[in-house]
Design brief:
2 domains; 48% helix; three-stranded antiparallel beta sheet; single chain; elongated
Length: 183
């Protein structure tokens, strides 16, 4: 008895979703660029006319000139890669550091530190520290390690203000780069 082969079901993306996306892209292109099909036909026609026309120079000269141009363009791209501006460290990449035995993380709001973007983490287990204020002291506690990581005189706003100034100092003196590269 001959076994019937079962054809796998084609995925819906191949036959429905991709053509719909292509149709939407073509529709948007027609809205942005008027007469896109007419202009595209002119470009393709011009390419075929150029390739089919006779050239007044020998083919081997044309190919040699083409190779020289390609080598020149490749050389320029190579030089741009070698001598181009290499991406370096930028102060806005500095978003965490160990300060006073706590791993502090923060965000920026444009070109300044975000006032509400500071968070304290345990340097050992990396868990967010719990904050409490008792008798003029701010305490940051890690409930996983069961240790106080940071105790300082002043409330939370005072601690954040001091931290803000310390981070600014490290950015201005470029001390942050040393700590950034150690990570």
């Amino acid at each position: 008895m001959k076994k019937k082969s079962i054809k796998p079901i084609k995925p819906i993306t191949k036959y429905i979703i991709y053509p719909v996306i292509a149709g939407v892209i073509i529709f948007v292109l027609q809205l942005i660029i008027p007469n896109i099909w007419k202009n595209l036909a002119k470009v393709v026609s011009a390419i075929f006319i150029f390739l089919g026309s006779s050239v007044l120079i020998k083919w081997w000269v044309f190919i040699l000139l083409l190779l020289v141009v390609l080598l020149f363009i490749t050389g320029i791209i190579f030089l741009m890669i070698i001598f181009g501006k290499k991406p370096g460290l930028h102060w806005s990449d500095y978003k965490q550091d160990g300060i006073d035995g706590v791993l502090w993380k923060w965000d920026y709001d444009g070109n300044t530190l975000a006032a509400d973007g500071f968070s304290a983490f345990c340097p050992n287990c990396k868990k967010r520290l719990l904050y409490s204020y008792e008798g003029y002291n701010s305490k940051y506690y890690c409930d996983r390690c069961d240790e106080f990581r940071f105790i300082k005189r002043g409330n939370h706003e005072d601690i954040i203000a001091n931290l803000y100034r310390e981070i600014e100092r490290r950015i201005h003196t470029e001390e942050w780069k040393e700590n950034f590269q150690k990570r």
